[in-house]
Design brief:
Elements lengths: L1 H49 L1 H4 L8 E3 L2 H10 L21 E6 L3 E7 L12 E3 L8
Length: 138
């Protein structure tokens, strides 16, 4: 009887430990995937500035221009040399929602790229905005 109790306790400890290992492993993988995607999006920002085809997308006034889905698709087809090797389609975020891009002409071209995050709702805590600290243009 004591043997069965000890065996049951050891099995419970093993199962608990295994579940913890899976949970922490999955969270670590998710965080590394998010960091890789952030690096990908940041590298796209630099490449957009180099694209000849992007120059006519920048607004002529000092306002932000939020690109349409077709404009984003056109840009993404022409972007090369990014840090997006692990992502088949960087125009889609980690949750398969389309990213957003806004352009602004001022003293220098400004670019904001953002994902609405897992909930696909703009302005919530799970949004990913590059460069960090920027506000999504309206």
């Amino acid at each position: 009887m004591l043997r069965n109790s000890i065996a049951n306790i050891l099995i419970a400890i093993f199962i608990f430990g295994f579940c913890c290992l899976v949970y922490f492993g999955y969270n670590t993988w998710q965080e590394s995937e998010k960091a890789a995607y952030e690096s990908c999006i940041a590298s796209i920002t630099g490449e957009i500035q180099k694209l000849e085809s992007a120059k006519n997308l920048f607004p002529t006034n000092n306002d932000w221009k939020i690109l349409s889905e077709s404009e984003i698709t056109l840009l993404m087809q022409n972007i090369r040399g990014t840090d997006c090797g692990g992502f088949n389609n960087p125009a889609l975020d980690l949750w398969n929602h389309r990213i957003n891009i806004a352009l602004k002409s001022s003293n220098y071209p400004q670019i904001i790229i953002w994902s609405n995050g897992k909930d696909n709702i703009s302005g919530t805590d799970d949004d990913l905005i590059i460069p960090y600290g920027q506000k999504v243009p309206k």
